[in-house]
């Protein structure tokens, strides 16, 4: 993207504008970038160079910022690129730290200055442009010119050690591919594992020799709840760099057989079906011994097997193209040089994980007995199983269990409560599974039992319950409650969740609560009155609230469409015209009318609606099959900052339907998806995170952490999660604190910071256990963007605990850190708390002081003055 514009209708000049007048094609030190721009008011601009290296996709190696105080005047700014030696020169005596850049991008951004003259950031910039640069290969770089004359002994030592590869002392050819049980729902997701070449030269030489004469062993524990619901389901798969299945591919069939496929040295794929039929509801270990052309005791291929485990990635379960099994994976061991015998029996193993597997089996066996008993009981009454309504039964059991938990104001978990929840879980209510896991983890009216917590977390996840999947993803991303910290496992769970809109209402914030509206409230009735009198803004707001069911208002699509139509047909607001046009084109809540919808879109686009430009692209591409004009409209919308349009351009690169570039280009698609994800686009985030999780695209390093962060944000927009939050809020407003607490706890266990803060607030309001309150306050600060109120609460907790515990200085330090993070997030209370600590003689660390332009040399009075000034400007 070389140019970006934001404008308003009726003006001759754009409001804001930025483009490259000139930019280099190659990453060269001393190159000049010329940026032409226009700001509607005082603004900050920047030019950056970012590179992708192994393990990190977006590393900034150059940045220059400047401020323009003269609005509405076109200006040109020239920036000289000064790049670090790490990406300019080879690895030598004078240049020890080298970055092997896969690709590079020069980008510029524009942002308005905040009130008070405080500069903005690139993350919140209103316009961004970029250009991809060609990068010189590492071996083609020049040597860094010497800056001094080293001694003869130093040069000799360098020559002797420069090519030495330090051997990792614990490098092993035996790898635990899975150490913690994995729930598999039978959907298209699984855990990705990548293997690197050996560091040890002898081991790597042996591995390379074995590519055409392999000797490897895979040992997989699985527990099947069902056989494959399709023809084939994935157990273990290997995808090479060309996105083709390689050796080895292990699949389950719809009849319970195992199929093993391998790539042979001739380049062809060969497969066979094992005669064994895997049982249901029983832990089974599959051992696959590969020796040259043989899969031991099973089959012999016609040619030797080609096996390179560093080419591409391995997957456990499903992937984008293959469904996984429906059940669980236990420990998986991979012997890169094979083994004569795998020794791992569940019966004589006493590890915690094996105990969890045994408890998981026991829970399912008990469930089978409960179902059999229920069926026999109904037959005795001459009633078919379906006539009772299992969905109704499991809901009644759940409600009864929750009722027994609150006999009085205090929460009390009895054996009756857990028994009812277990039966409800058995009949498929995995809201009960998640509540059981929460009870066992949280010390909430019941002693902590992590093993049982793991069992019901896994049962809920394998039931494809969105909350349970998010719960498992969150636990693995943080490594809490006994879950193994494993970002690849976290990604596998998050990748199976859906999306929709979620309202953020904090119970501890009176302003949030006062913003709520009800159909019977005076605010809603006044809004309706203004809408009926023709007020366009009221009509739009009313339509949005009724269409989505927001602000405490019940969803009413028919009434919403009526208000959308009335606001659109005033022909004064392009966004209102766009909203109604989309409803007409898609036939949502109104009879489909392409002609009328297209006219409204055209008119809205003429009036400056960027969304309408994107809508015209959709109409030409999907309805008219006119991809040339579709791309034209998408490009116009993308240049004006439409995340939807950027995503749509990525789709065109992915499917090869762009008339200008008719070939499929996954790399171009990825960068478009990544750009669109920065606008908060859900589909783009899902697509970009898949490439980041696998690292399968050339030039894009595997970055599981970034993939997890992106998908967690997507999952927290889940419509079902939003409904649960709405139920909790409605219960709270009606005075049913206990019902609200249960729903907030269920949502809190998925990792949603809003729910964690509200659960902690209710624990405090209901005078429940101390552990309940601080568990969720503590969880709420572990997220990637915690709410300031949670940081303040944890700061208070650490500070007041310091007076009663021996490690008081450490606790005060943690309190300062919490207050500092709250202050950085814009909390005046956080800044004020730092002032109080400074006045009481506590030394604030440099990491906190630097946030407020304070140095170690400033005395206490100056520190206090600077902090109070910032506090006043933020209040």
From TrEMBL:
Record-linked InterPro entries: Sel-1L3, Sel1-like, TPR-like_helical_dom_sf
One Pfam family named in its UniProt record: Sel1
SUPFAM superfamilies according to UniProt: HCP-like
SMART domains in the cross-refs: SEL1
Protein name: Uncharacterized protein
Source organism per UniProt: Anabas testudineus (Climbing perch)
């Amino acid at each position: 993207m070389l140019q970006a514009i934001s404008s308003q209708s009726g003006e001759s000049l754009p409001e804001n504008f930025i483009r490259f007048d000139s930019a280099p094609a190659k990453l060269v030190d001393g190159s000049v970038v010329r940026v032409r721009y226009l700001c509607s008011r005082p603004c900050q601009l920047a030019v950056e160079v970012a590179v992708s290296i192994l393990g990190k996709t977006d590393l900034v190696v150059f940045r220059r910022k400047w401020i323009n105080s003269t609005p509405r005047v076109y200006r040109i700014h020239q920036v000289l690129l000064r790049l670090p030696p790490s990406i300019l020169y080879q690895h030598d005596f004078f240049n020890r730290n080298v970055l092997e850049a896969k690709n590079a991008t020069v980008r510029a951004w524009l942002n308005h200055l905040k009130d008070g003259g405080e500069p903005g950031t690139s993350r919140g910039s209103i316009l961004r442009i970029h250009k991809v640069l060609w990068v010189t290969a590492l071996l083609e770089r020049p040597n860094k010119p010497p800056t001094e004359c080293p001694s003869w002994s130093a040069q000799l030592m360098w020559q002797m050690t420069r090519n030495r590869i330090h051997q990792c002392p614990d490098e092993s050819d035996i790898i635990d591919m899975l150490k913690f049980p994995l729930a598999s729902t039978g959907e298209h997701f699984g855990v990705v594992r990548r293997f690197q070449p050996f560091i040890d030269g002898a081991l790597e030489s042996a591995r390379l020799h074995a590519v055409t004469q392999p000797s490897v062993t895979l040992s997989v524990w699985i527990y099947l709840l069902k056989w494959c619901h399709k023809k084939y389901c994935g157990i273990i798969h290997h995808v090479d760099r060309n996105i083709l299945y390689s050796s080895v591919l292990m699949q389950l069939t719809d009849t319970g057989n195992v199929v093993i496929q391998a790539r042979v040295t001739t380049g062809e794929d060969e497969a066979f079906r094992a005669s064994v039929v895997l049982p249901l509801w029983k832990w089974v270990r599959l051992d696959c011994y590969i020796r040259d052309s043989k899969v031991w005791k099973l089959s012999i291929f016609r040619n030797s097997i080609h096996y390179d485990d560093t080419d591409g990635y391995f997957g456990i379960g499903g992937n984008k193209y293959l469904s996984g099994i429906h059940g669980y994976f236990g420990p998986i061991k991979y012997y890169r040089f094979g083994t004569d015998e795998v020794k791992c029996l569940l019966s004589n193993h006493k590890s915690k994980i094996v105990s969890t597997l045994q408890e998981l089996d026991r829970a399912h066996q008990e469930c089978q007995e409960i179902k059999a008993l229920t069926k026999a009981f109904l037959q005795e009454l001459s009633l078919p199983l379906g006539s009772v309504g299992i969905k109704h039964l499991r809901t009644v059991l759940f409600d009864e269990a929750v009722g027994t938990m609150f006999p009085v104001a205090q929460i009390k978990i009895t054996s009756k409560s857990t028994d009812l929840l277990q039966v409800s879980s058995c009949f498929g209510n995995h809201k009960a599974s998640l509540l059981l896991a929460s009870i066992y983890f949280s010390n909430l009216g019941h002693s902590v039992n992590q093993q049982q917590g793991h069992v019901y977390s896994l049962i809920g996840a394998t039931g494809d319950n969105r909350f349970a999947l998010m719960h498992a993803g969150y636990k693995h991303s943080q490594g809490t409650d006994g879950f193994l910290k494993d970002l690849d496992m976290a990604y596998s769970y998050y990748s199976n969740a859906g999306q929709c809109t979620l309202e953020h209402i904090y119970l501890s914030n009176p302003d949030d609560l006062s913003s709520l509206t009800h159909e019977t409230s005076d605010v809603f009735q006044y809004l309706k009155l203004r809408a009926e009198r023709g007020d366009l803004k009221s009509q739009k707001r009313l339509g949005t609230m009724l269409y989505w069911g927001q602000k405490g208002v019940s969803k009413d699509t028919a009434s919403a469409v009526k208000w959308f139509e009335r606001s659109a047909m005033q022909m004064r607001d392009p966004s209102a015209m766009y909203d109604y046009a989309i409803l007409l084109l898609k036939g949502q809540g109104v009879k489909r009318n392409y002609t009328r919808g297209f006219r409204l879109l055209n008119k809205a686009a003429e009036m400056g609606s960027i969304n309408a430009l994107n809508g015209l692209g959709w109409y030409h591409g999907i309805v008219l099959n006119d991809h040339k004009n579709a791309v034209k409209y998408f490009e116009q919308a993308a240049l004006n900052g439409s995340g939807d349009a950027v995503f749509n351009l990525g789709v065109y690169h992915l499917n090869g339907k762009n008339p200008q570039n008719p070939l499929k280009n996954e790399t171009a698609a990825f960068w478009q998806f990544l750009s669109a994800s920065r606008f908060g686009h859900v589909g783009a985030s899902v697509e970009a995170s898949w490439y980041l999780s696998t690292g399968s695209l050339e030039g894009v390093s595997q970055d599981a952490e970034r993939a997890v962060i992106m998908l967690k944000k997507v999952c927290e927009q889940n419509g079902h999660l939003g409904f649960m939050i709405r139920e909790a809020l409605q219960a709270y407003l009606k005075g049913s604190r206990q019902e609200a607490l249960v729903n907030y706890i269920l949502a809190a266990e998925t990792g949603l910071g809003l729910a964690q803060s509200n659960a902690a607030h209710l624990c405090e309001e209901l005078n429940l256990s101390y552990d309940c309150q601080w568990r969720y306050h503590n969880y709420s600060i572990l997220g990637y963007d915690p709410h300031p109120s949670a940081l303040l609460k944890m700061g208070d907790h650490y500070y007041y605990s310091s007076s009663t515990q021996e490690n008081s200085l450490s606790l005060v330090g943690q309190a300062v850190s919490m207050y500092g993070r709250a202050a950085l997030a814009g909390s005046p209370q956080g800044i004020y708390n730092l002032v109080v600590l400074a006045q009481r003689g506590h030394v604030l660390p440099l990491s906190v002081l630097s946030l407020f332009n304070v140095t170690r040399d400033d005395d206490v009075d100056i520190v206090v003055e600077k902090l109070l000034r910032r506090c006043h400007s933020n209040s």
